[in-house]
Amino acid sequence: MTSAVASGAGSLVAAAYFARRVLTPDRQRPDDVVVRAAAAHTVTLTATPETIVPGRYGLWIDNGFGHVRVGDIMRVDATRGTVERELLAVDRGYLAPGPARWNAYFHGSPPDVSIGARTEHVTYAGELGAMPAWVVRPQAGTDDVGRWAVLVHGRGARREETIRAMPPLLAHGWTCLVPSYRNDEGVPAGPDSRYNLGLSEWRDIEAALRHAVAHGAREVLLVGWSMGGAIALQLLDRSSLAGLVSRVVLDGPVIDWGDVLAHHARGHRLPRHVGSLARVMMRQRWGHRLVGVREGVDLAKTDWVSRADELHHRILLIHSVDDEFVPVGPSRELARVRPDLVTFEEWTVARHCTEWNTDPERWERLVADFAAG
């Protein structure tokens, strides 16, 4: 009996810890790579699963105050555990050997600096207070003030993640609005300072849509990365403004949080019953205090394969089979059960939400065609 009680208590503690890790924002973003050498046109880094993937990426240096952009892989030295990449630009700071942090967004500054697009730094009234956002307008003569694209970044990401989508959208006359949501850095936290996996955050994006409507938006294109995709899908289901949305682009989206949690539980070698218990604790009132949430997190509401019949908007769904964080399976399945709505574009090689990085020409062509249609 004592052994059984201890085992049950241990499972409860493990489940609560796992659930908290999923729902708690990462306040610290530690350096995760080392610059071994820097030359005029190349930079040598420690080889990691991220740094050895082809494509264009960024690198935070000087404790995040500096930023550089890197391109093609020039050479991998397996013996030394290093990778040499093309150095595209030093945006700010001084590049020298030392710790750095990998930046999958490629861009490291607001769009006026990153891509030279005129940018308004605005705030809108959210449920929890004033929320910062960017409004980026097309060049004069190409914009239709009534067409707005709302770009939603992923869990723990920054608004810079969305800049990659702006060129094809701006070129087709869409004004780009990049909102914030609760628990972003420098933004009001939720009442429990926990992520709600889209089940609360959609209200912050709805508030951003109200800002767009107040400034002339008559048609909205939603774009969401990772958890931003989950947020977008909740907004389409719950918001009275969903009728303004004509189409949706999802990149590496969470189509089913239950599948994502099961994937990470396996990765952490947790027994299946512990992962299941974590899901119950998120949902049931008795588990809220242990998990640290005020609102229940019912993962069944985030399963859009099971809820596929409830979708009504055209979706361009982009996802890599090599996504290590959000498995591609639910995206494939959603495309299979709703071929009338979902256009599925499968990538290889790219890790989580870096499809653009590995093939920007294809990514921008797909998004441009979808935005123009």
Structural commentary:
There is one protein chain. This protein is α/β, with parallel strands linked by helices and 373 residues long. The protein is built from eleven helices and 14 strands. Strands 7-8-10-9-11-12-13-14 form an eight-stranded mixed beta sheet, with helices on both faces. The chain has a six-stranded antiparallel β-barrel with strand order 1-2-5-4-3-6. The longest helix is centred in the first third of the chain and has 22 residues. 43% of the residues are buried.
List keywords for this structure.
6-stranded antiparallel barrel; disordered N terminus; alpha/beta; 373 residues; 8-stranded mixed sheet; globular; 11 helices
Structural class: alpha/beta
Q: What number is the mean pLDDT? A: 91
Provide the helix percentage: 25-40%
Strand order of the largest sheet: 7-8-10-9-11-12-13-14
What's the story with the biggest beta sheet?
A: 8 strands, mixed
Shape: globular
In a nutshell, what does this entry contain?
This protein has 373 residues and is an alpha/beta fold.
